[in-house]
């Protein structure tokens, strides 16, 4: 969660409640279980690590003054590195979804480029699973496992196609490199 919070702060300084609401909005029903305390604990850790700083907001419209968190230069570097790293073979769909949201909000990475990189990873894994399946009887335990792996990878690839459709519509227009 820390990397996602840093990416959200890359867009603009914010307070914990706003960050939590942005996460809940991005995750939909899955975000309902997100405890506000988790956000504040993560923000405190980011501050201690020198990745974020906080100040009290100036003259709030109503209510008490809140801590407003902002990204440090080190925090911006960490976000850029996180966005550039591979999702890994066991990446959770919601984690990758948050990475796409964070990339778009921060402006530090192109969600479509992340989708393309993830597709390449999954295609490679699918090819490996299919190659291994050829060496096993489809009725064996190993064959059944390999079929399950291939089916999961195929489902993830279909989900990435849906991500690509959605993020293509949201992509900024006229940023060089093509018509649109």
What does this structure look like?
With 180 residues, this protein is mostly helical. It has two domains: 1-84, Arc Repressor Mutant, subunit A, CATH 1.10.10; 110-174. It contains seven helices and two strands, in the order αααββαααα. It has helices spanning 2-11, 16-27, 36-48, 73-84, 93-106, 111-134, 141-170, and strands at 52-56, 67-71. α1 (2-11) crosses α4 (73-84), α5 runs antiparallel to α6 (111-134) and α6 (111-134) runs antiparallel to α7. It is elongated, with a radius of gyration of 20 Å.
Query: Mean of the pLDDT scores?
Result: 84
CATH architecture of the largest domain: Orthogonal Bundle
- The low-pLDDT segments are 173-180
Alpha carbon gyration radius: 20 Å
The level of helicity is 55-70%
Provide the CATH top-level class of the largest domain.
Answer: Mainly Alpha
Summing up helix and strand content along with how strands pair, one would put the structural category as: mainly alpha
**CATH topology name of the largest domain:** Arc Repressor Mutant, subunit A
Largest sheet: 2 strands, antiparallel
Strand order of the largest sheet: 1-2
Number of strands: 2
Q: Which oligomerization state do the chains in this entry correspond to?
A: single chain
CATH superfamily (homologous) name of the largest domain: Winged helix-like DNA-binding domain superfamily/Winged helix DNA-binding domain
N-to-C order of helices and strands: HHHEEHHHH
Number of domains: 2
**N- to C-terminal distance:** 34 Å
What is the number of helical segments per DSSP (H or I, 4+ residues)? 7
Shape: elongated
The portion of residues forming beta strands comes to: 5-15%
């Amino acid at each position: 969660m820390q990397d996602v919070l840093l990416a959200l702060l890359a867009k603009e300084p914010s307070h914990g409640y706003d960050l939590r609401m942005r996460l809940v909005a991005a995750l939909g029903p899955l975000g309902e279980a997100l405890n506000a305390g988790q956000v504040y604990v993560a923000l405190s850790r980011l501050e201690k690590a020198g990745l974020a700083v906080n100040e009290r907001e100036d003259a709030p419209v109503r209510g008490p003054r809140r801590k407003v968190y902002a990204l440090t230069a080190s925090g911006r570097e960490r976000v850029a590195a996180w966005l550039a790293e591979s999702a890994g073979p066991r990446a959770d769909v919601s984690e990758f979804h948050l990475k796409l949201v964070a990339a778009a909000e921060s402006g530090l990475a192109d969600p479509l480029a992340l989708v393309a990189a993830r597709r390449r990873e999954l295609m490679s894994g699918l090819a490996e699973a299919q190659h291994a399946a050829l060496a096993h009887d489809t009725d064996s335990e190993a064959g059944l496992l390999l079929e399950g792996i291939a089916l999961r990878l195929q489902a993830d690839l279909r989900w990435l196609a849906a991500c690509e459709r959605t993020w293509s519509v949201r992509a900024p227009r006229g940023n060089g490199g093509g018509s649109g």
